[in-house]
């Protein structure tokens, strides 16, 4: 894959990578990083750290200069950092960009790391690469390059981003003859997090739906496809519904849709304002027929007074039988947002998220946010959770989730 980035006849496969590959001064360092990046897997310890040490030793033995040694060993040591940051963290947050940029340090490392990351994802499995991951990595690359060029003091703060998004959205909504008092009244119920985590186009779209619904307490559901962003966006606005996340995941997984990102926000008047990024089974945005079918199924599930999920009958992929992936669950306190971050690593399978949602319901846990990623046959999901009082989970609540999910997933693996 690294070689193809520099071969003219393959330039249309990854146009940005092919363009970037022309600018790096020493492509041989990129090839060496590719050779060493996973060389220490399965040998105990952190394979990235062990591989970095072996790469440095190899290069020193072959009389390569210190710059080359530093670059290759750094790339091997941090070869997972860019994909993990893009898929696990909120890259719309300037603090995340600042932290990532500080770890990268300079433009040269960023260019090498971007190329290695794309090649690594595609090398793991061709089915892992999709337009959504392409969009995420380019967004992270662009924001980091700006940070490295101008410095953190020239990047907008969270408050500046929120203010800019509000001003641009308000201007557009007023041009569409949406009442200013209605807009401002709605926005007073939304936390700053909403305006930070959604772009101007999404804020306009959501605001129109909510305002046009008026005082209706019925769920509002809509889907838009964004080919340039590489996914479809599902917007769900509804008063409190028992098991809302479970209902949503069950419907989406029944339709064999992939959820790549979830943004779960609750308004001051206790309405759910949830956004999900979706891909179809071909790893592309949904087409019109799929959108219509999804909206119909979601409306039925959201409006049902009593609801039981349909059994998901899709068989696990055959390749899953060849991987013994034990479920691992860990918890970490998010002090800033007073959430508990749960990391779930397990074998990917049909019904994974709906089963997880069912466990959260049973344990009385609320989902506030989610970052969802799949690496080959392994799912790595980060769920941001609170108890019913919007506080971090205690040890008993953590044990309830952990015991339930490990038993469920490892027995069915």
Short key terms for the protein model shown above:
413 residues, 8-stranded antiparallel β-sheet
Describe, in plain words, how this protein is organized in 3D.
Helices cover 49% and strands 17% of the residues. Strands 1-2-4-3-7-8-6-5 form an 8-stranded antiparallel beta sheet, with helices on both faces. The chain is globular and about 75 Å long. With 413 residues, it is of the alpha+beta class. A hairpin with a 4-residue loop joins strand 3 and strand 4 (271-279). It is built from 16 helices and 8 strands. The mean pLDDT is 87.
Number of strands: 8
First-to-last CA distance = 32 Å
Main beta-sheet strand count, sense and barrel state: 8 strands, antiparallel
Strand content: 15-25%
State the shape: globular
Q: Give the rounded overall mean pLDDT.
A: 87
Q: What class would the helix/strand composition place it in?
A: alpha+beta
What multimeric state do the chains show? single chain
Low-confidence stretches: none
Radius of gyration: 23 Å
The ordered string of helix (H) and strand (E) elements is: HHHHHHHHHHHHEEHEEHEEHEEH
Placed side by side, the strands forming the largest sheet appear as: 1-2-4-3-7-8-6-5
Question: Helical region count?
Answer: 16
Helix content: 40-55%
List the helices and strands and how they pair.
Layout: H1 15-21, H2 27-36, H3 47-61, H4 66-77, H5 81-88, H6 94-104, H7 107-124, H8 131-150, H9 158-175, H10 180-187, H11 192-197, H12 200-213, E1 220-226, E2 231-239, H13 244-254, E3 258-266, E4 271-279, H14 288-303, E5 328-334, E6 339-347, H15 352-362, E7 366-375, E8 378-386, H16 395-412
Antiparallel strand pairs: 1-2, 2-4, 3-4, 3-7, 5-6, 6-8, 7-8
């Amino acid at each position: 894959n690294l070689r193809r980035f520099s071969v003219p006849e393959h330039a249309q496969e990854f146009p940005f990578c092919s363009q970037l590959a022309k600018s790096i001064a020493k492509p041989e360092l990129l090839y060496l990083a590719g050779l060493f990046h996973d060389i220490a897997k399965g040998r105990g310890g952190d394979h990235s750290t062990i591989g970095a040490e072996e790469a440095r030793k190899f290069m020193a033995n072959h009389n390569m200069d210190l710059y080359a040694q530093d670059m290759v060993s750094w790339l091997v040591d941090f070869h997972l950092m860019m994909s993990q940051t893009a898929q696990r963290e909120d890259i719309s947050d300037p603090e995340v960009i600042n932290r990532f940029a500080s770890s990268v340090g300079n433009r040269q490392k960023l260019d090498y790391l971007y190329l290695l990351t794309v090649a690594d994802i595609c090398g793991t499995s061709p089915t892992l690469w999709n337009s959504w991951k392409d969009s995420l990595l380019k967004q992270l690359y662009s924001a980091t390059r700006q940070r490295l060029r101008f410095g953190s003091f020239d990047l907008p703060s969270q408050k500046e981003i929120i203010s800019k998004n509000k001003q641009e959205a308000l201007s557009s909504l007023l041009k569409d003859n949406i009442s200013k008092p209605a807009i401002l009244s709605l926005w007073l119920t939304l936390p700053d997090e909403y305006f930070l985590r959604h772009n101007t186009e999404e804020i306009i779209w959501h605001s129109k739906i909510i305002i046009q619904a008026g005082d209706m307490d019925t769920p509002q559901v809509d889907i838009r496809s964004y080919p340039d962003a590489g996914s479809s966006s599902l917007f769900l606005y509804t008063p409190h519904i028992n098991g809302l996340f479970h209902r949503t995941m069950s419907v989406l997984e029944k339709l064999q849709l992939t959820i790549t990102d979830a943004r779960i926000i609750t308004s001051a008047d206790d309405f759910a304002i949830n956004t999900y990024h979706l891909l179809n089974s071909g790893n592309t945005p949904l087409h019109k027929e799929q959108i219509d079918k999804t909206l119909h199924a979601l409306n039925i599930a959201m409006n049902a007074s009593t609801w039981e999920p349909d059994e998901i009958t899709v068989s696990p992929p055959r390749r899953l039988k060849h991987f013994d992936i034990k479920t691992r669950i860990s918890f970490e306190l998010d002090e800033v947002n007073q959430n508990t971050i749960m990391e779930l690593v397990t074998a990917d399978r049909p019904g994974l998220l709906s089963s997880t949602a069912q466990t959260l319901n049973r344990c009385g846990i609320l989902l506030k946010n989610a970052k969802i990623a799949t690496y080959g046959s392994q799912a790595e999901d980060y769920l941001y959770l609170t108890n019913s009082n919007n506080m971090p989970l205690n040890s008993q609540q953590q044990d309830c989730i952990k015991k339930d999910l490990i038993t469920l997933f490892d027995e069915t693996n």
